[in-house]
Amino acid sequence: MTAEELADLVYEAERILRGDLYAVYSRDIATALVAHLNAAEDVASHVLAQLRTGEAKATTAEISQRLALVIGSNPSAGKGDAAVYGRMLAERVGAHEPTVGALEAACLRIMDTQTFLPSIAEVLTALKAEEAMQARWIVALARIPDARRGLLDAIAAEEQRTAERRTNVKRAMRWHLERGKDFPPRTVSEHDILAEVQAEMASDGVAPGSVPFVEGETWWQSVHVDG
Predict the structure, then answer these.
(1) What is the pTM of this model?
(2) Percentage of the chain with pLDDT > 70?
(3) Last residue of a domain, one of 123, 139, 155
């Protein structure tokens, strides 16, 4: 996985954890994302080490070598103009003090995408963009363990809420059935709970409608009394 792909995993996890409007949360999505983050951890440590190595400032020799490749690989470079351009470009790039990683990435991007030699301003803009991007990646990759733990906590909390909701539905359903009152299931899960309640009542020897209904009593009150 690339640094960009790894960072995107972290950003997606953090959007979910922040509850962003357009972040889609479900237990399945969060669980799948945790699996991706688990698989990414070993790769991320290697990529992060490379990025941090690339934070070193490029030497004058490294700047000259990289820029010479950019100029020499472009067929539009004229001999006389290229010499002046190369000298001024090296001077301006050197004054910017680029990192090794940003210099390499910017030069590769220019060679891969530019048909003609870029202006000095374009090269400096590319360098700044690469430095900013790599800095963001470093911060993001360092947050992978926190993003993973956050998702696991969110999943556990959701499972707890689901279990509590199921318990409440089950209590309410049994309370109604014992008193001969309707509690029609509305979801697949509630149909399963109904079957479970009916089986438990049969096992306990409690027939539907066998418990007298007390006016004003609610299933919620009975929960607090029983609890």
Answers:
(1) 0.71
(2) 93
(3) 139
